[in-house]
Amino acid sequence: MTARPVAPWWKRGVIYQIYPRSFQDSNGDGVGDLAGIERRLDHVVALGVDAIWLSPIFPSPMADFGYDVADYTGIEPMFGDLAAFDRLLAAIHARGLKLLLDFVPNHSSDRHPWFIESRSSRSSPKRDWYIWRDPAPGGGPPNNWISDFGGSSWEWDAATGQYYLHAFLASQPDLNWRNPQLRAAMMRVLRFWFDRGVDGFRIDVLWHIVKAEGFPDNPVNPAWHPGITERDRLIQLHSTDQIEAHAIAAEFRALADEYGAKTGDERVLIGEIFLPNDRHARWYGTLERPQVHLPFNFQLIETGWDAALLRRLIADYEASLPAHGWPNWVIGSHDAPRIAARVGEAQARVAAMLLLTLRGTPTLYQGDEIGIGEVVIPPDRVRDPQDLRQPGIGIGRDRSRTPMPWDTTRFAGFSAVEPWLPLNPDWPTRNVTVQDGDPGSMLLLYRALLRLRRREAALELGDIVLVDAPDGVLAYRRTDDRRQLLVLLNLTSQAIGLDWHGVPLLSTRDGAPVPGTLRADEGLIVA
Ligand code: ISL
Asked: Is residue 173 in a domain?
């Protein structure tokens, strides 16, 4: 037998996203923090994941809850300080876990000293670090671009008589990646964290970072209707996915690889990229000049919950990957609706099996492992700036950012005081401690799935072959040269006759699997 190269952790492993504001408060301000995360690491270890990705922890006025960074190499005081960060990183590494930080290169906060300097005068040495333009010839914004959070992408600055560009809030001015000094400064930011020992980055809105030269108007989207976000009135043809951004992604990768080679510990880049398959796949780069290791694949978040749709989605995605491209799957995030709210608890168990048995690196979002579902945020507690700016179309992100319920004590053990967002209403019964003691819980299902995945190389690294199955069932095989596993997912709430053979390894339902049948809402792995 020839020795196989050991696959890197980011191919085998599972990533767990922590939203720091909502994981664990340790200092009684109702907001989570780094010391809190450190305190709860046993949960992460018991779950059985391999890496933690932390949403932004840098100094921030919190207009977009950390995605508005005022200092790329500091720690937000609300979360702790650099010493607390170093302690957390050491504790994570001591448990054999990896840590990925969130790099937000497209925009900073308007309170970042770079922007304060940039806006101070037209002749500021940092003027060109951001994107400043004169008004259109007849007056008004330089072009028709619309911010992702609604309204024009251009903000007027009366003091210097120009507009600046912002793809998100006006308090999140876009950085100018065509400026070599800005680029060098940002590369130093990555070095700063790599030098401290972080294992990689999730890169925020990577496909946004360069805009078309000349800033042409974006084309109108004929499919737009008032029920969707204002952003979608236009197709973001010239404001996103520019060829020059790929070159920058390749630079990020070269830096990550430099650190990997130097330390013998591979550093990983995940790009946040929403694009159709053909354009999405380009973010892997080429074998000779790679870009990100994992361009985040959000299709499971966006799809309807239907076996035929999922089958096509998986086939099309797999077919779109370049030969060297390793797949990945995401089913929840701090931006997306909760999976259990979308498909219900029974199907959320099937979704867990899907996420953890598809070919590719899964990212699991905090709270999904206990099946947090619908949370209605009372109007006076809405905090999400996107929701506040475009109310009534159901895009609120707060409902996925509610605090982790740990136990049945006051405020669910998250905090000693009322948390910044409400808890899930069923927290007295849906929390980590209660589920830990319940063999039928979502938490124990997640742990079992993660254990099985670790035990079965075919699940971690094997090939995937979609298999024909009755309507309502999604079926695939995961195989390597030693083992063949069959995954059968009943996406409906009715039993479906299906003649499976072999040894059942794990079911999403309790009780013994029934020969000749997939029970209602049953996911089953058969060896
Ligand atoms: O384009 C989208 C989906 O098609 C949006 O969801 C968009 O990609 C998303 O809002 C970008 O999210 C990231 O950047 C934002 C921040 O508010 C989000 O929390 C972050 O995940 C701006 O930094």
From this structure: no
Instruction: Select from 388, 417, 450 the last residue of a domain.
Output: 450
Q: Of 161, 143, 162, nearest to 153 (Cα)? A: 143
Q: Give the residue, by CA position, lying nearest to ligand 1 atom 1.
A: 274
Does the predicted TM-score (pTM) go above 0.70? yes
The token pair that represents 120 in the structure block: 């101070």
Are 77 and 208 members of one domain? yes
End of a domain among 450, 481, 501?
450
Residue 143 has pLDDT above 80, yes or no: yes
Examine the residue annotation and report whether 204 is marked as an active-site residue of this protein.
yes
Per-residue model confidence (pLDDT) at position 119: 98
* Neighbour count for residue 457 (Cβ, 10 Å): 17
Q: Which residue minimizes the CA distance to atom 2 of ligand 1?
A: 274
Cβ-proximal residues to 379 (8 Å cutoff; 6+ apart), any chain: none
**Test site for ligand 1: of 69, 204, 228, most ligand atoms within 8 A of the Cβ:** 204
Verify that 81 and 121 share a domain, yes or no: no
209 and 313 belong to one structural domain? yes
Per-residue CA distances from 312 to 275, 307, 491 (Å): 17, 9, 15
Q: Which of 108, 205, 224 is the pocket-test mutation for ligand 1 (most atoms within 8 Å of CB)?
A: 205
Residue 229 and residue 369 in one domain: yes
Choosing from 213, 258, 265, 481, the catalytic residue is 258
Instruction: Tell how far the Cα of 148 is from the centroid of ligand 1, in angstroms.
Output: 8
Q: Is residue 503 part of a domain?
A: yes
Is residue 468 located within the same domain as residue 412?
A: no
- Residue 142 lies inside a defined structural domain of this protein: yes
**Count of domains observed in the chain:** 3
pLDDT tens per residue across span 195-235:
999 999 999 999 999 999 999 999 999 999 999 999 999 99
Helices within 358-463 (DSSP H only): 385-389, 432-436, 442-455, 457-461
Q: Which of 50, 76, 204, 266 is catalytic?
A: 204
Same structural domain for residues 395 and 276?
yes
Cα gap 484→113, rounded to integer Å = 56
Shared-domain flag, residues 277 and 349: yes
Instruction: Take atom 4 of ligand 1 and give the residue whose Cα is closest.
Output: 274
Average pLDDT over residues 55-81: 98
Cβ proximity of 375 and 424 under 8 Å: yes
Same domain, 90 and 201: yes
Residue 18 covered by a domain: yes
Residue nearest to atom 6 of ligand 1 (CA): 335
Write the CATH number for 129: 3.90.400.10
pLDDT at residue 493 above 60?
A: yes
Ligand 1 nearest atom to the CA of residue 336, by list position:
6
339-359 per-position pLDDT tens digit: 999 999 999 999 999 999 999
Provide the residue range defining the domain that includes 120.
113-165
* Active-site residue, 258 included: yes
Residue 175 in contact with ligand 1 by CB distance below 6 A? no
**Span 267-315, pLDDT tens digits:** 999 999 999 999 999 999 999 999 999 999 999 999 999 999 999 999 9
Report the C-alpha gap between 424 and 109 in whole angstroms.
Answer: 30
